[in-house]
Amino acid sequence: FFFIPIILMITGGVLYMGQLNSLSVLISGESTRVVTNLAEQIIQGKARAVAAEVKLYLDNNRNLNRGQFYANEAFRAVAVQKVGKTGYTALHAVPDSDGVWRNWVHTNPKLVGFDMSKLKKPMGENFGGFWKVFSHGKAAKESKGYYTWQDKDGSFREKYMVCAPVKGTDFVIAASTYLDEFTR
């Protein structure tokens, strides 16, 4: 009479703990998926909003040419905006007559006017994921996706980028940030 109820209670407790653990794993996974989806939408919204702002600025400043974009502080403030904690937007153009993809406004001045295909060597095997998203906007279509980026400390983390075309131009706004800033 004593051992049978204790064995049943222990068995019930073990089963209960297993079910509770399964439920917490399920809730955590679903929460991460929902937050990731929301973060992707926020980044996409930011890219579209900045593209619309750039379009308005360019429509009202028709004499501004791409060589002046970075030097124009007001335009730079429109084209480069924060995304999350460490992310940002940048402006690039579809390939010019030489077939070169160039950034025209970026947080890193070294990348202004830079041929972005030259990132292939420093990015190594991670370049393909980046390039697929970055260069897909050639047909004035929005592109989005994940790629792996190497931090200054040498570690690799996954970034999400959305490239939104600036309507009526050959420019594209790229909004990129680490998704773990949202899912942490």
Describe this structure in words.
The protein is α+β, with helices and mostly antiparallel strands and 184 residues long. It is built from five helices and six strands. It has helices spanning 3-60, 73-79, 120-123, 127-134, 180-183; strands at residues 82-83, 87-93, 102-105, 143-150, 156-165, 171-178. Strands 1, 2, 3, 4, 5 and 6 form a six-stranded antiparallel β-sheet that branches. Strand 2 and strand 3 form a beta hairpin. The protein starts with a helix and ends with a helix.
Sum up the structure in keywords.
single chain; 6 strands; 6-stranded antiparallel β-sheet; 184 residues
Shape, per Cα inertia axes: elongated
Poorly predicted runs are none
| C-alpha Rg (nearest Å) | 23 Å
Average pLDDT works out at 88
Number of strands: 6
**Number of DSSP helical runs:** 5
Order of helices and strands: HHEEEHHEEEH
Measured as a percent range, the helix fraction is 40-55%
Structural category is alpha+beta
How far is it from the N-terminal to the C-terminal residue, by CA? 50 Å
How much β-strand is present in the residues?
Answer: 15-25%
* Largest sheet: number of strands, sense, barrel closure: 6 strands, antiparallel
Strands, helices and their partners?
Layout: H1 3-60, H2 73-79, E1 82-83, E2 87-93, E3 102-105, H3 120-123, H4 127-134, E4 143-150, E5 156-165, E6 171-178, H5 180-183
Antiparallel strand pairs: 1-2, 2-3, 2-6, 4-5, 5-6
